[in-house]
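Re: weekly structure request thread

Next one in the queue (258 aa):
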Amino acid sequence: MKFGCCTTMEYYDLLDKLGYDYIEIQGAKVAQMPEEELEETARRLKEGRVKCCGFNVAIPADLAIIGPNYSQERTQAYAKELCRRGSLLGIQNIGIGSPNSRKLPEGYDKELAWKQAGEFVTTFAKEAQPYGINILWETLNHLECNFSLSIPEAVEFVKGLDLPNVFMVGDLYHMALEQEGAKELLEALPLLRHVHLAQRDKDGNRGYPDMAHLEEYRQVLQPVLDAGYDLTLSAEAFYGPVPEGAEEAIRVFRALVG
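Done, posted below.
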C-alpha cells in the first residue's frame, strides 16, 4: 500500500520527511499554472522521492460535468490540456468528483444528466489514454451536490461505460455522510483504484483523519484490504494545519495497514 496526501507543493519536503509515497495535487490549480511553474514542479517530482499519484479537485466550478451548462467542446479542450500537464508531472489518476460542477437544477432530466456524465468521462478517458492516465469517477454526498451519491449506482455507471482506463475513487468521507460502508466499497472493489480518507469535525469541516476515529475507518477499510486492495490511500482534507494533519494522517494509515 502506498500513502498519499492531497496538498500543495509548498509541503512537498514535509511529506518526504513524514514518509509519504505520494503527493496529490488539485488539478484545477495545475490547469492554471504558468508553464515555468509547471516545469519546475515536474522537475521536483522527477528528481524527488515523493511522486504525484494524481489530481483531486480536477474540475473547476465553471466547467459543468452535467446540467444546462454542459459543453462537450469545453470539456474536450480542458481535458486535453489537463492530461498534457498531468503527463508532465507523471500522474497515474485524475479523480472526477468536483461537486460544484455536478449540481442539477430542480426538475432537470436525470437520464440526460447521466448521458452527459458519460460523455464527459468518455472525453476525458480518450484524452488520458495515450498518457497511461486513469480517470476515476467519485461518488459525493447530499450536502455538497445532488448527483451520483451512491456507490452501487456509480459502479453500474462505470461498468456501462466499459472503458479500459475508467475506474473509481472510494471516498470514506462521502460514504459516511451517505451511510455507506464496507459492503458498498466491496461492491466497487474490482473498479477501485484509489481511496480518500478525511474526518468531519463538529463544525462540519472536512479535516484530516485522526487516531480517535481509527476503528470507524477500520470497519470500512479492513474487509477491502482483506479482499486484496493494495494500491493508494490519500488524506484529502480542506481544513486544518497541514503539518499536524499530515503527521496524524500517516499515523492512521500505518495503523490501518500494519
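The mean pLDDT is 97. The chain has ten helices and ten strands.
Next request, please.
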